[in-house]
Specification:
- By secondary structure, the chain is of the alpha+beta class.
- The protein has 2 domains: 2-137, Aminopeptidase, CATH 3.40.630; 150-297, Gcn5-related N-acetyltransferase (GNAT) (Aminopeptidase, 3-Layer(aba) Sandwich).
- It is built from 8 helices and 13 strands.
- It has helices at 17-32, 39-46, 90-112, 130-136, 175-184, 195-207, 251-265, 286-289; strands at residues 2-3, 7-10, 55-59, 65-74, 77-84, 117-124, 139-151, 165-169, 211-217, 220-230, 234-242, 270-276, 292-303.
- A 13-stranded mixed sheet has the order 1-2-3-4-5-6-13-7-12-11-10-9-8, sandwiched between helices.
- Helix 1 packs across helix 2 (39-46).
Length: 306
């Protein structure tokens, strides 16, 4: 498929990894003034087994990547991302890949026999193209999240636990408890309703060397954090969830501190953290207890039925 004869739609695996990194860094710098994407970030995004079948890139002259769209099924939701290089071809590129994404979503919904919900996340505040194209296609703005880059050169402060609290690594016997906390947390992002799919996610994380930490209060599961370390001393906090009944007790901060300490012990010096607006009672407190190198707002859009 071509666009204006100079632009070609390709699968992500047919595009050099550095081309995707360059695309995302150009997008970040244009939207926020700071480019933070690394090869490890892109490897994490492209490592999901469904990515190749459900992902597309639009390349232009010199094989420069103009846009990239992909989604991952999570339960009843197709969680997508759409990234467009700034420039005069941005809107047409966004429409082209969004059309492919929605056609694929319709195909999967027909195969399944019931519709999937579709979300597009990772849209940076300051993006002047993708939000308007999404709204034009029937999407509405949903949850926002805060994305932080944290310097872990020095070890973080130890977690302050509530009375009766303890943190330990979660194992297979804890999967049901983790899923219950996941579903009940106040984070407004998509939830993985199917326990089997949730368990598969955690197993993939374990196989990739990731860690799940569970915080309990007097033996009751109250929250968890998922982390992963990468080559190049990079790390990620992939998810943090707190049970609603225990909000306001410092559970989120204690989990974050424990997760960062785990990453620091593994040699990580730079961590990307994305926190839903419901994850922490006072997100501004992060800057008072951690060395935050960058903070920015990320938006999520939901396709409105009908």
């Amino acid at each position: 498929m071509t666009q204006h004869e100079r632009f070609v739609v390709r699968r992500p695996n047919d595009v050099p990894l550095d081309g995707l990194v360059d695309l995302v860094r150009s997008y970040e710098e244009h939207a926020t003034g700071v480019a933070a994407c690394t090869r490890e970030d892109i490897l994490l995004e492209t490592g999901h087994p469904d990515h190749e079948e459900n992902g597309w890139c639009l390349t232009g002259p010199g094989d420069q990547v103009i846009a990239w769209a992909a989604f991952t099924p999570h339960g009843d939701t197709l969680e997508a991302a759409l990234t467009v290089r700034p420039g005069r071809h941005g809107e047409s590129a966004a429409r082209t890949l969004l059309g492919l994404l929605l056609d694929r979503a319709d195909e999967l919904s027909a195969r399944r026999g019931s519709p999937y919900a579709v979300t597009v996340g990772g849209v940076l505040s300051g993006d002047g193209v993708v939000p308007s194209v999404l709204r034009e296609a029937g999407f509405s703005a949903g949850a926002t999240a805060s994305q932080y880059t944290i310097d872990l050169t020095a070890p973080p402060l130890p977690p302050v636990l509530p009375e009766g609290g303890s943190i330990r690594r979660a194992g297979p016997p804890d999967l049901e408890a983790l899923h219950t906390v996941h579903l009940g947390s106040r984070g407004r992002g998509p939830k993985t309703e199917d326990p089997a799919l949730f368990h598969t996610r955690l197993e993939r994380l374990r196989q990739a060397g990731g860690t799940a930490l569970l915080l309990e209060v007097t033996g009751r599961p109250t929250g968890y954090i998922l982390t992963q370390a990468f080559a190049g001393r990079q790390g990620r906090v992939l998810e943090l969830a707190v049970a609603p009944a225990f909000r306001g007790l410092g559970i989120g901060y204690a989990l974050l501190a424990a997760g960062l300490a785990e990453l620091h012990a593994r040699g990580t010096t730079r961590v990307r953290v994305v926190l839903d607006t419901g994850d922490l009672h006072d997100p501004e407190a992060l800057g008072r207890v951690l060395t935050v190198r960058m903070a920015r707002t990320v938006m999520c859009f939901h396709l409105v039925d009908g």
